[in-house]
C-alpha cells in the first residue's frame, strides 16, 4: 500500500481558518461504511443516528498553550519552542525552530525571564530536551506566556483560545485538540444522554506525531510517535456494557478510537489501564471495539485519512472526500464533520 493511494486534491480555500460561532452548526456528511453511500446533514442531526444503548466515547484531554516565543540568551535571537512531552523535573521534549540556534547548553528566555529553558540534548527527529526554571506554578506561567499550538495550515489568529478546546476538556497534556469533539455543545451532549445513550470518557494526550507527514512510500514502514492514554474502570464498564447489550460504540475522533483499540483485548473487552500507544491503523486493520466514528476531514496522505479508510474502505472514503470538495465542505481542525456508520443499523 503506497502513500500516493491516499492523495486527494484539496483547494486551499476549503481549509477552515476560523471556528464557527455556534459549535454545533457545522455540516455533517454521513457515510455508510458498508456501501459508501453519503447523506448531507447538519451536525445536530447526529442524534438521528444514535439510539438507546449506544455508547459515545469522548477524549477529555485538554490542550495546553504549548507554543512559546522566546529569545536566545546572549544574542537575543528569536526562538520558537513547542512543548511535546513532559518528563520529570520540569524537563520537556520540545520542537524548536530554528533548531540550529538551539544546541545543548543554549539558554532561552521567555517573558523577560519569567521562564527560562536550557537545552539539555538533541533526541529523536531533532527534538530537544529542555529543562525549565521559573518561580511559582508551571501551569500558571505557561497560561500567561504560552499560545495555543494551532496547526500550520491555520493562518488566522485565534480570538478565543477556548474555541480550540472541547467543552468537556478536563486533563491537561495535549499539543493539539481532538478536533472532532469541537462540534459538541453541553446542550447537545445532554440531549444525547437523555436519549439513553451512555457517554464514556477516555484520555489520550495528542502529540504532534499524529500529524507528522508520512515520508515513506510504503506506508507500513511509517512509525507513529507514542502518546499517553488512560481509561478508568467506570468508563471501561460503560463501553463493555454497551457491547454486551448489543449497543454500538461510537468514538468521537480518531484519538478516542486509537485509545480504545490500543486498550482492548482481542475480544474487544476494555479494562482500566494507562500507558503509551504507537498504534497505526490503516486498511486491513480489524477493529476490536469501535462500531462507528465521528471525525473531521483529514489531510491528504495523512495517517488519519488511512485510519478512516480502514473503517470504511479507501475507495469509499476518497469518493466521499471528492464529494465533500464538490459540495464545498470546510476541511481540517475548524471544519465540518463526518459520521462513518453502518446505516442499516442506525436509528432514523
Written account of the structure:
With 348 residues, the chain is an alpha/beta fold. It folds into two domains: 3-63 and 160-345, QueA-like, CATH 3.40.1780; 67-145, Beta Barrel (Thrombin, subunit H). It is 18% helix and 27% strand. The chain has helices spanning 138-145, 186-194, 233-244, 254-263, 303-312, 314-326, and strands at residues 27-32, 38-42, 55-59, 61-63, 67-72, 78-86, 91-97, 107-110, 115-122, 128-134, 171-174, 198-204, 227-231, 249-252, 273-277, 292-296, 337-341. It has a nine-stranded mixed beta sheet with strand order 2-1-17-16-14-3-12-13-15. The protein has a six-stranded antiparallel barrel with strand order 5-6-7-10-9-8. A two-stranded parallel sheet has the order 4-11. Helix 5 (303-312) crosses helix 6 (314-326).
> Strand tally, please?
17
Percentage of residues in strands: 25-35%
Multimeric status of the protein: single chain
Gyration radius (Cα, Å) is 21 Å
Q: State mean pLDDT (0 to 100 scale).
A: 95
Structural class: alpha/beta
CATH topology of the largest domain: QueA-like
The global form is globular
When the domains are counted, the total is 2
Number of helices: 6
- Fourth CATH level, the homologous superfamily of the largest domain: QueA-like
Low-confidence stretches: none
Per-chain topology:
Elements lengths: L26 E6 L5 E5 L12 E5 L1 E3 L3 E6 L5 E9 L4 E7 L9 E4 L4 E8 L5 E7 L3 H8 L25 E4 L11 H9 L3 E7 L22 E5 L1 H12 L4 E4 L1 H10 L9 E5 L14 E5 L6 H10 L1 H13 L10 E5 L7
Parallel strand pairs: 1-17, 3-12, 3-14, 4-11, 14-16
Antiparallel strand pairs: 1-2, 5-6, 5-8, 6-7, 7-10, 8-9, 9-10, 12-13, 13-15, 16-17
Amino acid at each position: 500500500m503506497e502513500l500516493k493511494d491516499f492523495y486527494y486534491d484539496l483547494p486551499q480555500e476549503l481549509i477552515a481558518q476560523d471556528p464557527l460561532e455556534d459549535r454545533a452548526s457545522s455540516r455533517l456528511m454521513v457515510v455508510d461504511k458498508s456501501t459508501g453511500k453519503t447523506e448531507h446533514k447538519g451536525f445536530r442531526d447526529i442524534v438521528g443516528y444514535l439510539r438507546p444503548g449506544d455508547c459515545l466515547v469522548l477524549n477529555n484531554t485538554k490542550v495546553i498553550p504549548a507554543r512559546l516565543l522566546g529569545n536566545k540568551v546572549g544574542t537575543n535571537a528569536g526562538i520558537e519552542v513547542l512543548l511535546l512531552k513532559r518528563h520529570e523535573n520540569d524537563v520537556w521534549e520540545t520542537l524548536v525552530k530554528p533548531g540550529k540556534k538551539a544546541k545543548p547548553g543554549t539558554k532561552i528566555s521567555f517573558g523577560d525571564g519569567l521562564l527560562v529553558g536550557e537545552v539539555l540534548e538533541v533526541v529523536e527527529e531533532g527534538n530537544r530536551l529542555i529543562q525549565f526554571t521559573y518561580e511559582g506554578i508551571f501551569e500558571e506561567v505557561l497560561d500567561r506566556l504560552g499560545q495555543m499550538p494551532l496547526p500550520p495550515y491555520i493562518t488566522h489568529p485565534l480570538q478565543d483560545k477556548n474555541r480550540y478546546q472541547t467543552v468537556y476538556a478536563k486533563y491537561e497534556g495535549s499539543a493539539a485538540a481532538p478536533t472532532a469533539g469541537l462540534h459538541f455543545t453541553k446542550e447537545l451532549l445532554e440531549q444525547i444522554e437523555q436519549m439513553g445513550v451512555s457517554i464514556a470518557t477516555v484520555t489520550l494526550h495528542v502529540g504532534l506525531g499524529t500529524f507528522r507527514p508520512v515520508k515513506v512510500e510504503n506506508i507500513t514502514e511509517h512509525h507513529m510517535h507514542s502518546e499517553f492514554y488512560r481509561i478508568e474502570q467506570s468508563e471501561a464498564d460503560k463501553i463493555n456494557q454497551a457491547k454486551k447489550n448489543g449497543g454500538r460504540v461510537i468514538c468521537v475522533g480518531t484519538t478516542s478510537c486509537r485509545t480504545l483499540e490500543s486498550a482492548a483485548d482481542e475480544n474487544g473487552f476494555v479494562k482500566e489501564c494507562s500507558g503509551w500507544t504507537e498504534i497505526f491503523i490503516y486498511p486491513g486493520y480489524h477493529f476490536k471495539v469501535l462500531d462507528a466514528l465521528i471525525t473531521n476531514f483529514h489531510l491528504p496522505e495523512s495517517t488519519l485519512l488511512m485510519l478512516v479508510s480502514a473503517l470504511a474502505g479507501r475507495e469509499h472514503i476518497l469518493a466521499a472526500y471528492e464529494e465533500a470538495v464538490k459540495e464545498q465542505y470546510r476541511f481540517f481542525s475548524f471544519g465540518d464533520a463526518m459520521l462513518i456508520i453502518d446505516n442499516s443499523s442506525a436509528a432514523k
